[in-house]
Amino acid sequence: MNGDRGLSLLAHPDQWARCSHDGTALVPGGGVQLTWADDDNDETRRPRLLAGRCVPPTPPVRVPEEPAGLAFDRWCRSYRSNPAQHRVDVATAAGDPRTPAHQPGILRRPLGLAVDRAQRLYVVEHGAAVVHVVDLWAQRLLRRVPVRSAAHRARRPVDVAALCCRAYVLLQRPAALVVITGRRGPLPGPPLHRPRGRGPLEPTRIAAHRCGLYVLWRRPGTPLGLIARPDGTVEAEVDGATDIDLTADGTLIVARAPHRPFRRFQPAVPGRPELEPLDAPRYDGGALSVAPNGRIAYTAAGGHAWTAGPSARHTTTGTVTTYRLDSGAYATRWGRLFLDACLPPGTTVTVRFLTTDEDDVTDPLPWRPADRGHHSRRDHTPTLPSRTLLDEPPTTPPATLVRRPTGREWPWAQIAADDRFETYETPVAAPPGRYLWLVLHLSGTHRTTPRVRALRVERPGHQLLRRLPRSWSRDETAASFLQRYLAPAEALLHEMDERSAQRAVLVDPHTCPQETLNWLAGFAGLVLDRRWPEPARRTLIAEAYPLFRRRGTIAALERIIAVYLGVAPVIVERWRLRGIGGAVLGTQPGGPPAPAIEGAARATGTLGRFTLGGSRPGDDVYKTSAHQFSVLIPAELSTEQLQVVRGIVDTHKPAHTTYDICELGSGMRIGRRLHLSLTSFVGPGAAAGPAVVGQVLVGGDGVVGLPAVGARLGQSSRPGELRVG
Q: Is the pTM of this model over 0.70?
């Protein structure tokens, strides 16, 4: 049975784009769902029922003439500019404001805000035409950068965006970009070009991402809003846009008028197809920002709020007609259909099948692109079904999908715990034919929609009819009945045969099912810890034999810890820090000899009262350094992770040794004793080059060697500050 049939597959986004759509939209990554209506016609613009009474629609709110600013630092403290009160409000991660609401500031119309990776806050003061740079570590002002020049006295900054350790400032009159990097700048930025053919436009907002810069252009006196790159290439057009930002994966978020949903556009796809809008019920038209935790925040009365999920108003029905699937042989009896779909309560998907042996279609159904999503070229779309065949009344009712209790039909296939898609199955109820079309009918509600990610069709179906007397299948009606009647039992046997043929998967730690990991680990004598993540357990099993050959060595212990944590630790043995031979300065004539390697050294004369090099007289170097080591981990561990790491070290270290574990965090620790006869550990953060104290940013959190800015000497450590000594 194994290998006696193939599969016709629809899964790639381009395959779904080539189908004919009616009331459906494409899903990012592949698939279809019900489309949604424009938000101008959604329920926020019409009366709605609330607690049994009719509530009038929300009245339109005037967009503020000036935008605000919103930014977050690494501690999730929010910074919001308040142009009316001439200040910047600061709130903790819990949302508690630090500035009284009635206390005015001294800034002249502060607008845009941004925080770079070095935790420097950039404040655009529009009225004074300057940009303030604030060090959030030291909590003091670094610079006050004027952007007005003698040639452009009317120039004003309107917004700022941070990318890595630099900030891009957007200017008006004339439109331009300048770059500020901490203590350097302003330097000329990339050339800024207006989008052509759209009339007079003014830049109002800027967003920075590793994929590039994006500028929001607006036409004065009109709702027209264009999001374009600095070279003038338009990425999206959104009427009434007030602010823009990008998430970590490059999704473009566009805020609009108050109480209007935020629009989203898919990243890394030509044309930037639109995603479902996000609900922002308390948005005041000021600003939006993507927080460090990935959530989308926006300015609201009294502070900031968070988006409340999709707010799309879907259509209730939709249809997807696939292009022609070819089995390669005439009079083919197609087998089963497997559909990977997410069907929330209140949603359904039904399927209709069309088959034929005719190679030419005289009256094909006209191709219709999806309402939203990436569109394929019409001339690249394969043959669609005949309109005559589609209009014929179906001989059988639409097939109802049945959820498979065993998951995917593939042998040993695993479904991720967070995967909301399940596999549904139904036999192909259609006469034999070489070509097959499927018509998917999607049904849902205004708030929920079914999603179909992929479909697979067996070609041909089972061949049990050939093993039966010919007289039993000579009549087409009898043959069709027997084909369906024998399908469930044959499907079970077929899947068992495929599992048997693919049993080599069970001994591969990277492909075996999760429930067989403990069984496979038993071959190496391993007892897996359930606290380990699944990828780490698979890697440990794959490397068990090489690691056990080196068990008890530094390299093996470092590798096991790295497999679990995902970061490479460093093990330092104490004896390496006991010193080398050197001069003892300060001993009396005839005193103890200087420490030396492979022999003793003569004591030197008295030049002071301290020891340079080696160990201090009287120290027992063997007792303080032998058989002891420290595990340096460049990460901050949770309580569970620390317990697991201690268990790893206890199990795999030499029995006669002792150890301690030191967490180095994401950057550096100064003044923290590592119990290594050292007073501090200074090292670069992840993916950083060699650090020069006083010149290079260490760990991305502070600058060492600039006490006026990045450190406070002799003071106790407080959150957000750096303690030296």
A: yes
